[in-house]
Design goal:
heterodimer, A: alpha/beta, B: alpha/beta, Rossmann fold, two-stranded antiparallel sheet, globular
Chain lengths: 326, 371
């Protein structure tokens, strides 16, 4: 067992490298991922190590990247596509949602499409328009896709390898704001299945659920809540499709209160879905309505306004206070 | 709206071989065909047209939700289909019924699709590498290009062994040529020098919009801007379609990169059974193209080679037999169980699929108990 302190960007890099070593059919493709190593350097060094046949710098065309990845998968390869930024995924929307997502069913299961689409997403990096968005709900909504998102370097290292090993199309959302903080990575075992949610802090009075970039915010909020005398349990969802409701429902049945937090707009979102399901399945355990803390239902604002747009620990605590008041 | 000076044809409208400087490159490929192969070209064109008429009738009688006729385009389709080798991959749009049949797909699979019983469902690996119909216009061109890239990356092409080296044919239309995906496919194909042939059937209509709205330049000229050679052929000349596709596929298979063929043809029927071409089409155009019919032309050619009435009667009967068989089997079709909806959305277990399939089963069982 080796435990090493790594950034998430480096952890994904090592996870990709391990997947390529383990399986010669794995290849990477995307814009600027070759000699440059990607705009976030997630693929740094892989072009030099594995060559241009396995790390493809593609033309600048997102539909082309996904559409050709589908054909590459048909030829028996396992493409891992990088979409450069969240807001640039939409030119590939047809190929992801109408083609890739449906092709296994369209073939009656005769063909599988092990394509991974890596999407750096979320705010807190002060970037210009289209570079800070959270489009995950579109893809979680689409049957045939799986969607996961790590919150820690350890999860990122393992989840990218498990995503690549899956025979189903996989959206892999990488929280940009968590690319650089370091965390311990144990390269001997993941410790948890890809689609499992996880309690990351135990508590008794209110459950806080988030994923990706929001998990750290929830932990900070739970710290402050504890100082103020409220015991909060924090769950990292990890998988957005399917959602692992086991730990979620068990926690809500224990605490009776639930706050769901996300950077994405709240309208028709992951948080909405969890609120509906928890209300359906744990109604008699709830002491308060399920509350959502989310980005506003506006376009992502200019970067100087992002701290007002994005939920922070105080916005989470405001919802905790409301929940506790019931 | 007709042929141009650029249009390559090996067989003129009267069914005579065209022998000139341009055709001399391709005529040896025709001379190499056996009488039986030539008869097969005709057989496939005639039989699929009869099938097409029967399917249209079935739609009008309420047996199909929709029909997509291919009448008039048999020459382009049969010639190009026979040009491909067994190891090649074929990506259709959704009107290539005869290509499907030649590659081993039972026409009933097309019937099932248009009756609303499936979204395709065949395994290309078991059906001549004939991939599924794609209804989002042009999307399949990228799949074809990706698969061609995969052939390169897996060493399945350009090894110098024509019995083993594979290439890809992708069919699309004049309407699709305006789609961004087609341009992206041309970009990727040119960049990676993929082993593939882009086969554009210019049938002159994207539902009701004429090809002139799609392009101000002849479509075969468009790929040159991407660095891909293009050629315009008479798509109603099955021999030109065969020979030019074969030459281009052989080049692609040998590592010469992608090629582009524009086959000039005409959609004699409607776009689909939901369409009414009398609202937008000039009947004079139709007459021109009826006079250039691919089947009549090829029949004249075969008769000039000595083929007699017996063969043509036999082929006509084969068409009747298939039509009767398709009608019979269509009327026998059942409906798959509703639980099939959940079966192949994912290839690995998925809790939402399991939960909803179980719910539906319990819900339906509730009715059976008479509650």
């Amino acid at each position: 067992m080796t435990v090493e302190s790594l950034s998430m960007a480096k952890a994904i890099n090592l996870g990709l490298r391990q997947a390529m070593l383990d399986d010669p059919s794995v290849l990477l493709m995307g814009e600027d991922i070759g000699p440059l190593g990607g705009v976030f350097r997630v693929t740094e060094g892989l072009h030099a190590e594995f060559g241009a046949q396995r790390v493809l710098d593609t033309p600048l065309a997102e539909s082309g990247i996904i559409g050709t990845a589908i054909g590459l998968a048909m030829s028996g390869l396992r493409p891992v596509c990088e979409i450069q930024f969240d807001g640039f995924i939409y030119p590939g929307f047809d190929q992801i949602t109408s083609q890739l997502a449906k092709l296994t069913a369209r073939h009656g299961g005769a063909m599988t499409f092990p394509v991974v689409i890596r999407v750096p997403y979320g705010g807190h990096i002060g970037a210009i328009e289209h570079h800070q968005e959270s489009p995950e709900a579109y893809f979680a909504h689409t049957a045939g896709l799986r969607s996961v998102t790590p919150a820690t370097p350890h999860d990122a290292y393992w989840m990218i390898q498990e995503a690549i090993a899956s025979d189903d199309p996989m959206m892999f959302f990488e929280p940009k704001s968590r690319y650089w903080p370091k965390g311990d990575v144990d390269d001997s075992a993941s410790g948890i299945p890809l689609h499992a949610s996880r309690i990351v802090r135990e508590g008794t009075e209110v459950t806080l659920i988030g994923y990706g970039p929001m998990v750290n915010v929830l932990l900070a909020a739970a710290d402050i809540a504890a100082q103020e005398g409220t015991s909060a349990e924090v769950i990292d969802l990890r998988s957005l499709s399917p959602i692992d409701y086991g730990p979620v429902l068990a926690s809500v049945r224990k605490t009776g209160r639930l706050v769901v937090a996300q950077e994405a707009p709240g309208f028709v979102s992951i948080g909405s879905e969890i609120a509906a399901t928890v209300t359906e399945q744990a109604f008699y355990s709830l002491e308060a309505p399920v509350l959502r803390v989310a980005g506003f239902d506006t376009p992502f604002p200019p970067a100087k306004l992002e701290t007002a747009y994005l939920p922070d620990a105080d916005r989470v605590l405001e919802a905790v206070d409301r929940a506790m008041a019931y | 709206m007709a042929y141009t000076a650029d249009t390559l044809r090996l067989l003129d409208a009267s069914g005579s071989l065209v022998e000139d400087d341009r055709t001399s490159e391709f005529l040896p490929l025709i001379e190499a065909l056996s009488d039986e192969q030539l008869r097969d070209f005709h057989r496939q064109m005639v039989v699929i047209r009869r099938f097409d008429v029967e399917a249209g009738n079935l739609q009008r009688q309420g047996q199909l939700a929709l029909w997509i006729p291919s009448v008039g385009q048999e020459g382009a389709q049969v010639g190009s289909a026979y040009a491909a080798r067994p190891q090649d991959h074929i990506f259709p749009a959704y009107r290539e019924h005869v290509v499907a049949r030649i590659r081993g797909v039972d026409p009933m699979r097309i019937i099932e699709l248009l009756r609303g019983l499936s979204h395709g469902g065949w395994d290309p690996a078991q059906h001549g590498n004939f991939h599924l119909y794609t209804l989002v216009i042009g999307s399949q061109t990228l799949h074809a290009t990706g698969l061609a890239m995969g052939l390169q990356l897996t060493g399945a092409t350009a090894t110098g062994d024509p019995e083993r080296d594979a290439a890809v044919v992708v069919y699309f239309g004049d309407g699709a040529s305006s789609q961004g995906d087609v341009s992206e496919a041309l970009v990727f194909a040119a960049s990676y020098q993929t082993p593939q042939v882009f086969f554009l059937q210019n049938n002159h209509w994207a539902i009701s919009v004429p090809v002139q709205r799609q392009s101000r330049t002849p479509l075969f000229q468009r790929p040159s801007g991407f660095g891909i050679p293009g050629i315009q052929i008479d798509g109603n000349d099955v021999l030109a379609s065969y020979a030019v596709t074969k030459a281009n596929l052989d080049a692609a298979r040998a590592g010469a990169g992608p090629r582009f063929i524009e086959a000039l043809t005409y959609r004699i029927g409607a776009h689909t059974s939901s369409d009414d071409p009398t609202k937008y089409r000039d009947e004079q155009d139709l007459e021109f193209w009826l006079a250039n019919d691919p089947i009549a032309r090829f029949e004249a050619y075969l008769r000039s080679r000595g083929e007699g009435d017996a063969f043509f009667a036999e082929v006509a009967q084969e068409g009747e037999d298939l039509a009767a068989d398709v009608r019979k089997r269509t009327l026998e079709l059942g409906v798959p169980p509703a639980s099939d909806m959940f079966s192949h959305v994912y290839s690995e277990p998925h809790p939402l699929m399991d939960a909803q399939a179980a719910w539906l089963e319990a819900y339906e069982a509730g009715f059976q108990e008479g509650r």
